[in-house]
Write a structure and sequence with these properties.
The complex is a heterodimer.
Chain A lengths: L2 H21 L7 H10 L26 H14 L14 H9 L4 H25 L8 H11 L10 H19 L2 H7 L15 H6 L5
Helix pairs in contact in A: 1-2, 3-4, 4-7, 5-7
Chain B lengths: L4 H4 L1 E7 L3 H12 L4 E4 L7 H4 L40 E2 L32 H4 L1 H5 L9 H15 L28 H12 L5 E2 L14 H5 L4 H12 L22 H11 L3 E4 L2 E8 L5 E8 L4 E12 L3 H10 L18 E4 L2 E8 L19 E3 L4 H5 L9 E7 L13 H4 L5 H10 L3 E8 L8 E9 L5 E6 L4 H20 L3 E2 L21 E3 L23 E3 L14 H20 L4
Parallel strand pairs in B: 1-2, 1-8, 2-5, 3-15, 8-18
Antiparallel strand pairs in B: 4-11, 6-7, 7-8, 9-17, 10-13, 10-16, 11-12, 12-13, 14-15
Helix pairs in contact in B: 2-10, 2-16, 6-16, 9-10
The chains are: A mainly alpha, B alpha/beta.
């Protein structure tokens, strides 16, 4: 947070305090509680994360990753899920934005993932510099592969690559969630449900024959 | 402050809770003409308006992943609930997770019926008399024959798909003409059936409370209420308001077309239509009150909106708040007559808490690779299942555990959501790039999960009591849980693991989860299957039970329980159908008591 925003925030708080002072004696209220009271008029519920509007979902937390981190993640998710003749690359379907939403969420699992992902981006760039004297995004495809091959499976990774492997696995799983829940991603793997039907017919004769359940 | 009208009126019956037991009680009692007040601790909830039908994971926060706020995902039909409810803590006697009880609650009209799995299995004859069969657990003071007519009626009312005529041991067939037609099996279910049959494991259509065709609103209401025009009318109207399943969108979100059973769409609307039911939501009940004659005369609740205490009066009280919550209300209802809690002269209130035994194994099935895209949504629950099959081996002493489990299958080409393809790297040698995309295409829909749901024997070490040091945000003393599995349950889970691995191998697949030969490492934590029962058990002996065979308190004759708390033993069968059948029977008895002026 820059100094100017802090000052603005302080000015707003003072203003709210002034408003509160007009109606209630200030004595006994700390600055923050008076401000909160002025803002919420008591026990009014603004948003309940355990009872949200399911038909109008909102992400109720702010994003934590920087623009630069998002750009670096975009490079990595496209190494993991590149464009091919069936579907586009992960970044073009918003995977970095989803990862940001995930690691910014105020829950223990996601808070751990934030550390893993942020630290992982730094780790990846450091590894790239160590090997090629450039950041990961500046590497060519072969150079990127050389690093990714060392961290794509934790059980096989060398001790010095193990943290990188955990980071890579996390980004791969999050990129897959981001990608395969989109319309394009579901089409890629052939999910064709979630539409109302008069009857449920079960597998076709063709499928039954492929499964050797019918001759 | 204005006093609500409900505060001054004396009702015939006050019902605490609006889920399977409370909803069924309200339905039967109001149709019989009794004036009923229902209290629900959560907010009002309308599945028609609030259910996210067809909504995609991509439109939900975190792609619908579970969080502490929304444990079963954003779209799951749970309001202000989960393993923790804000402001309503509970405590554990032990720091060992295996000796803890995880308590799922939902603070909403209809309770957990809004999201449940709809699996509706009848207890069999052995399940009502477990002690007589093998000396373990407690016999129920009722037999299968006593409850069977109520199973029939409940299945006709709620609509349960399944198939009859299998004639399997301790797996009752419903009489012909009662069940809804079962859906056709999915591809992976047929593959599993073939493998299981080769292993002499029976596989038959599952029983789920989902309409596969519209109910016959002309015939069924007359069967349910032969001499009651009001009952016929409200039931017929309610049945006409329900559509058949259209084979899409998950039942766990609730069902706005009312194909899947929920108390809020099937029980409460017809009860309200009788004109005999009032409901107060956001009413957190603290205690049942007692008059000078030693009878229950009402309940005290906290109105959550105003945070004020209120009292309502009734000539009878039915508690159906969920097994542990019902125990909590009883234990907190202290008086000079009942210093340890109302109806607790036996000292058994809160005792013999049970849950289903749970264990599961996942496998990958190569035969399912390379199939053309097909829609496997189906009913969202299982179409086929495996009832427990080793009764004879058990009788011959060949197994190292008592009782049994059934198998619930899932898998196939489900809707991709959060975590899709998680862990795939162990299959693909850490693939990324083009190889990864190819692997996702190859492996999508090829995983099958087998979940065992087994019988737990009631024991002295699994119970809840009041944690005397702590209250919740409504000023109500909270529960402390004690839990312990016996060797029977842990050995059962080891048997599940071994068996499920064999089924997967018989299907030509390979196991992808860890197989444990030590069941204590693999058993699900107490409460986590959310089949919470016991706490005010019924019995034939008033010294050894809290309730009689009509779920009526031995001590306080106008106090009844209609949730899972009266169950004296835990079958492998999921409890909801039995909760509803018992609630119907108890409600019939209450009506009879009113007619005889015994209440």
């Amino acid at each position: 947070m820059s100094n100017s925003t802090t000052n603005l925030h302080r000015r707003q708080t003072l203003k709210l305090l002034g408003a509160a002072a007009a109606s209630a004696p200030l004595l006994g209220f700390s600055a923050s509680s008076a401000a909160v009271q002025a803002k919420t008029k008591g026990a009014e519920v603004i948003f309940s994360p355990t009872d949200p509007d399911l038909l109008n979902p909102v992400v109720h937390w702010s994003m934590k990753l920087t623009q630069q981190e998002l750009e670096e993640l975009a490079v990595l998710v496209d190494v993991i899920i590149p464009a091919d003749d069936q579907s586009p690359a992960a970044s073009s379907l918003g995977a970095p934005g989803f990862i940001n939403e995930w690691v910014s969420a105020p829950y223990p699992q996601q808070e751990r993932d934030l550390v893993l992902v942020r630290g992982g981006i730094v780790w990846l760039n450091a590894e790239a510099r160590k090997r090629f004297n450039q950041s990961f995004r500046q590497l060519n495809a072969m150079q990127r592969e050389q690093i990714c091959d060392d961290i794509c499976l934790e059980s096989r990774a060398k001790p010095e690559h193990r943290y990188g492997a955990r980071f890579f696995a996390k980004v791969r799983d999050l990129a897959a969630t981001a990608f395969y829940t989109t319309t394009e991603g579901m089409a890629d793997i052939g999910y064709i449900g979630n539409r109302p039907m008069q009857t449920f017919e079960g597998p076709s004769d063709e499928v039954l024959r492929m499964l050797k359940l019918k001759s | 402050m204005s006093v609500m009208q409900a505060d001054t009126q004396e009702y015939d019956v006050i019902i605490v809770g609006s889920g399977a037991g409370g909803g069924m009680s309200a339905y039967v009692l109001t149709i019989a003409g009794l004036k009923v007040l229902m209290l629900e601790a959560g907010r009002d909830y309308d599945p028609v308006k609030e259910t996210p039908m067809f909504n995609w994971p991509k439109d939900a926060p975190l792609r619908d992943a579970g969080t502490p706020d929304r444990p079963f995902g954003f779209y799951n039909a749970t309001v202000d609930g989960g393993w923790q409810v804000p402001g309503e803590p509970y405590s554990q006697a032990s720091s060992d997770p295996k000796q803890q009880f995880s308590w799922w609650r939902a603070r909403m009209m209809g309770g957990r019926t809004n999201h449940w799995g709809r699996i509706s299995l009848r207890n069999g004859p052995y399940d009502f008399k477990p002690y007589s069969r093998d000396g373990l657990g407690f016999d129920w003071p009722v037999s299968y024959e006593d409850i069977a007519p109520y199973y029939d009626k409940t299945e006709m009312l709620v609509g349960v798909y399944g198939e009859t005529g299998h004639n399997l041991e301790n797996t009752p067939d419903s009489p012909a003409g009662i069940l809804q037609p079962p859906p056709k099996p999915r591809a992976y279910e047929l593959l599993a059936k073939k493998a299981c049959n080769e292993m002499d494991i029976p596989v038959i259509p599952g029983h789920l409370a989902i309409l596969t065709k519209r109910q016959d609103h002309k015939v069924l209401p007359k069967k349910l209420f032969p001499n009651n025009p009001l009952g016929q009318k409200v039931t017929a109207d309610s049945m006409q308001a329900r559509a058949a399943c259209f084979w899409a969108t998950h039942c766990g979100r609730g069902c706005s077309i009312k194909a899947a059973f929920q108390s809020t769409t099937v029980l409460i609307p017809p009860a309200l239509a009788t004109g005999n039911l009032n409901i107060i939501s956001n009413a957190m009940v603290r205690e049942v009150t007692l008059n000078a004659a030693g009878k229950a005369d009402g309940v005290i609740y906290i109105d959550k909106t105003s945070r004020q205490e209120r009292k309502v009066k009734g000539r009878a009280v039915v508690v159906a708040a969920s097994a542990a919550e019902t125990s909590r209300i009883f234990l907190n209802s202290r008086s000079s007559l009942f210093p340890d809690g109302i109806a607790n002269s036996s000292g058994l209130v809160g005792k013999y808490l049970m849950d289903s035994v749970g264990g599961g194994v996942t496998g990958q099935i190569p035969a399912l690779e390379g199939l053309p895209p097909m829609n496997e949504d189906g009913s969202s629950g299982h179409h086929l299942y495996q009832p427990w099959w080793l009764y004879k081996e058990q009788k011959a002493g060949k197994l190292n555990f008592a009782k049994g489990y059934h198998i619930e299958m899932s898998g196939g080409r489900t809707m991709p959501g959060a975590g899709v393809f998680g862990g795939l790297e162990s299959f693909t040698d850490g693939a990324y790039g083009k190889d990864y995309k190819d692997a996702c295409r190859r492996y999508y829909g090829t995983f099958v999960h087998f979940a065992g749901r087994g019988s737990m024997i009631p024991n002295e070490d699994s119970f809840c009591e009041i944690d005397s040091d702590r209250v919740d945000q409504w000023g109500i003393p909270i529960l402390k849980f004690h839990w312990k599995w016996s060797d029977h349950e842990t050995n059962m889970v080891a048997h599940m693991h071994k068996t499920f691995a064999e089924i997967i191998e018989q299907m030509g697949g390979k196991v992808t989860s860890t197989i444990h030969s030590d069941g204590s490492k693999a058993i699900s934590n107490g409460g986590s299957i959310i089949h919470e029962i016991g706490g005010t058990i019924m019995g034939a002996d008033r010294g050894k039970s809290v309730l009689n065979q009509y779920c009526q308190s031995w001590d306080v004759p106008n106090l009844f329980v209609t949730d899972g708390a009266p169950f004296p033993s835990k079958a492998d069968k999921n409890p909801t159908l039995t909760i509803m059948a018992l609630a119907w029977r108890t409600s019939d008895y209450i009506v009879e008591q009113f007619k005889q002026r015994a209440i």
